[in-house]
Amino acid sequence: MKKPLLQLLLLILFFSKTQALILPAENAVVYSTSVYFEESIVPKASSYKLFIFEDSLLNVPVKLNGQKSCSWPAFIAGELGWAKKYFWKIQAFAPDGKLMSDGKTHAFRITAIKSVNFDEVKMRVNKNLTGRNSGGYIFVDNSRCLFNREGKAVWTVPPVTGIVDENAQQVRDFKMTKEGNITFIAERVPLEIDFDGRVIWKAPFPFYYKGDSVFYHHEFRKDNTGNYYVLGGRLLYRKLLLKLPDEVVKNEDMVKITDSAVYRKTEVSMVLKFNKEGKLIWSWDSNDYIQDVDLNYKRNGEGFPNFNSHANAFSIDEKTGILYVGFRDLSRIVQVDMKTGKVLNSYGEKYPSGDAKMANDLFRAQHDAGATGRGTLLIFNNNGARVNTREGRGGISSVIEMRLTPAKPGDILLWQFNLDFDTLTRGKSLKAGNINEMKNGNLLVCAGELNRIFEVTRSKEIVWDAFMFSRGKGDTLWQKQPQYRISYCEQPVFRHHLETHEISNRGGTETKIDFKVYNSGNIPETYIINFIDTNGTVIKVLKTRRLNPKESFSGKTVLLLSLKNSDSLRLNIRPI
Predict the structure, then answer these.
(1) What is the pTM for the complete model shown?
(2) Is 214 helix (H, G, I), strand (E, B) or coil?
């Protein structure tokens, strides 16, 4: 039955909301087992209830883990199932408890998880000492998922048009930003997205530096000022210093022979800094630092220098403006003054050039180079990985904390934890791995190729421990699934709000507005409210106090303008 025209006009003029009203959208695909639900506000309703069903006839209700009733039509429900279709509705009730609206039934589907080259992934948790570990959630990059501490996947990376689809594409280096978004590298493109997959920022791609094509790799992060840092690489020719037989030279790939010298093309890494607009505003190029004598130092199985340096990690001490870059194939970490671009110090294996200057043989073929901000670095020491170098496969892998300026050379190692701490593995990770320092001082460690993730205290007690596995379609056996990096997350972030406003005193010299903003997300938010007239002009700006989840803010304001009944006034609300 149609509402009378006057009633519709009153609803439009006196009761409005600026956001889309149905979430998830009809027949949407969702990429999380925790789902945000939102429906239209029903005028004069005082409470709402959410119902979820597994069938379209609404005969099989889902037991909700989350809020079941609310004074606004917005809910977050968790622990739904992967690869399932659901039906839902929100009922509205009057102050006396009578049903005002039974709600329209909507449908959505939660995707199936797909990992790199596999159709199924799982985390097997061996130990979970709740209250003693850091809790929260863990991004696991090769699995493309966020897991809770019980080993359940709760989120998987959504598709991003033209970059990430639902197939098992490679993603690397998930990190949570201070705004509650996610940065990562997807198929060589650095992205920042929210948990729903909306793109916040994308690195320029393709990108050229000094005329060379640059590829992004391994590590990407957003700093506290809103700029973005990423490891990049390009292929350049570097000089062969040795006199080798012609057959050795000619058998080598990417060799250029001139009248004066022989050159080989090799990967040269750099750190690139982009602003919010995607403009390159700073860079450090290792081609200006790494010397030919070091690139010629080690040889491959054919006797030709391997020319590899391969940076795989960096970190920034934002307070001091110092950059740390880790070169796996040189077993070296360098300390760079970001103002001058000069290398201040170097750590690791000593080469013919004289670098590294400190910590000779402390680590080999390392991953991660995490500045702690207290004069130390956290390093995942693979302890030798490449069989075509003189170190061979090396010994036990470890987590180490290294002093940057020790009082004596022998005091450079502050703390070490070896990975052969039990009999479940040999304690050797040939590649990958990283370290997250938690607020309580514990270390959350990805053991890379070892497919193990664990949290250890400074007293060397394991307080959480898990292994990653995967299998392909039709396979019966679960295989070990190595990971490149992990990172910590307190919770998946839902940033949502609802608002209502009522306009009175139309036709007079002043227009009065009563408004209310409700934080329907799950993190505290402060909102900016723009009042916009018929012409699209912002005529007033207000700021709310900080609202906790499920908290509302009510306000009144007077605008010095006269609105006719045909004029519109809208509110644009955004979190800050």
Answers:
(1) 0.91
(2) strand
